[in-house]
Each structure stands twice: as C-alpha cells, then as structure tokens.
Amino acid sequence: MTFLYYFxxxxxxxxxxxxxxxxxxxxxxxxxxxxxLLGLFGGVMGALRNRNTTLELALPETNRDxxxxxxxxxxxxxEMGFELRESGKADGNAVPVGNAVPASNVADNGGVSVYQKxxxxxxxxxxxxxxxxxxxxxxxVGRVHAIKQLQAKL
Length: 154
Hints:
By secondary structure, the protein is an alpha+beta fold.
C-alpha cells in the first residue's frame, strides 16, 4: 500500500510538473513518461523509507540485568525524541497519556506501550509500539528508520 500511495502521488505530480516545465500538452507521451518515471522513483523511495518493521530484543535473565536493560532502552527512546503516549494492559484496556507507564513496568504477560515523537516530528517518524512478552523479550514495531536508529543506540 505504501508503494502504491507514493507511486500514484508522485506520478500525478511528475506528470503535471513535467507538462508545465516543458510546455507540453497533457496528452503528450513525454509528459506521461516523465510522470511514470518520477512516480516509480517516488514509490520506491517512499516504500523504503516508510515501511514498518519489527525488532525483537531478548531480555536478560536476571532481574537486575533486565532492569538495567529496560532503563537503557527507555533512555535510547528519550534520546531519539520519543515519549510515552499510551500504555496498554494485558487485559486490553488502554491507560491514558497522563497515567501511562514505561515499558519496564508493563505487565510481564503482555501489554503494549505506544511511544511518539514529542515535538512536531510525529507525522514523519510515526509511533513505536513496544510489547513485553513474559519477561523474555521486548517486541518493538515501528518505521524502519526509527528501528535502525534504536538498534544503533542499543
């Protein structure tokens, strides 16, 4: 879907801009080909940049190491500009923003914490969803560039 969205938008823009810039009629094959080339480029770039991916992180076995790891994880998110927006409980009930708890405090058997950019960058950065599974691993889902940045910090 991401590719299709960016492809169609870029094709339309490329078609009209090429037609205007080269002073071509709208039914000109050159304007159509230019639009399709720009659409293909825009679709590929948009799909590569805005796709979602999943990162699974194994939690250390001891409580002390696990606490240190989750603190390091939350510090990395803060450095990236993400802050906690919502925390879900294992029973499916969401906790509002003011009462949200960090990923380290989410129930051991599940629950999802939602992190979002604090200032203005949330549209392009998207959200990070963090799920803690049975004290064994953290599963983080988000845009590929944010996940790569998080991996580099950890």
